[in-house]
Amino acid sequence: MPEGELCALFGPNGCGKTTLFKCCLRFLAFHQGSVVLNRRDVKSLRVEEIARQVAYVPQQHRPPFPFLVKEVVLMGRTPHLNGIFGAGAMDKQKAFDALRRLAIDHLADRPYNQLSNGQRQLVLIARAMAQETCLVVLDEPTSALDFNNQIRIWQVMREMAERGTTILACTHDPNHVAWFCDRMVVIQNGRIAAQGDPMEILNHRLLDTIYGGSCSVGQTGELKLVLPREVARRSALDLE
Ligand SMILES: Nc1ncnc2c1ncn2[C@@H]1O[C@H](COP(=O)(O)OP(=O)(O)OP(=O)(O)O)[C@@H](O)[C@H]1O
């Protein structure tokens, strides 16, 4: 991936997006292919070295202990420290900045395991921001969020990419891909079915291949909009 790119990994349920992420991060062993991170094979890197370069936001996270939200976010600093107890004022400030950027600083002193799914998802994204890595990998980062927070997270990812962070996020929302991403990679049946600029490759033929004819792609000005086919028929959009 080019530096500073916001790329979406897209594909139907069960096509292997999470598995691919887990292989890239070495949570799962893989037997074919290779993963190269800043010109080095990840198999040759120690876990700490990977954590200094890649932050991961998992789809689900079951906390083992009632850590406070501010402690969970501070854990993002761990790869840069000599253990969590080495956290200094600057690390705490970075953790707080991430909480504030996501408008969840009011949750700082709440136990993480007493939060809603969406609140926990925001905390994990804040933890990844505090980690300050060159690559951030996010597994359906907006799946539990209200619409306002979905847009906030895509805007935050966009800003991070503009500042040079490379971002790989999987999502099931083709509109988010069209509105916010530089590139999309479509996985189907174990291989890359298509990849490129969403404005160029996101069309009804691609969606028919993935979803079997349930969607239409409309265009209004520079904006693409994916709608259920029946809804699209009722709209005044130019349909492909
Ligand atoms: N722990 C597991 N053991 C065995 N098979 C698994 C396991 N986890 C996932 N799989 C299988 O691997 C395949 C890919 O799953 P994966 O979770 O990577 O898909 P995904 O694209 O992330 O799906 P979704 O969009 O539903 O989150 C699926 O067929 C799934 O059933």
Automatic annotation (TrEMBL):
The record ties this protein, via Pfam families, to: ABC_tran
Tell me the GO molecular function terms: ATP binding; ATP hydrolysis activity
Write out the entry's keywords from A to Z: ATP-binding, Nucleotide-binding, Transport
Can you name the source organism? Desulfosarcina ovata subsp. ovata
Q: Which residues form the ABC transporter domain?
A: 1-214
Q: What is this protein called?
A: ABC transporter ATP-binding protein
Q: Which residues form a coiled coil?
A: none
PROSITE patterns registered for this protein in UniProt: ABC_TRANSPORTER_2
- Give the matching InterPro entries: AAA+_ATPase (IPR003593), ABC_transporter-like_ATP-bd (IPR003439), Metal_Ion_Import_ABC (IPR050153), P-loop_NTPase (IPR027417)
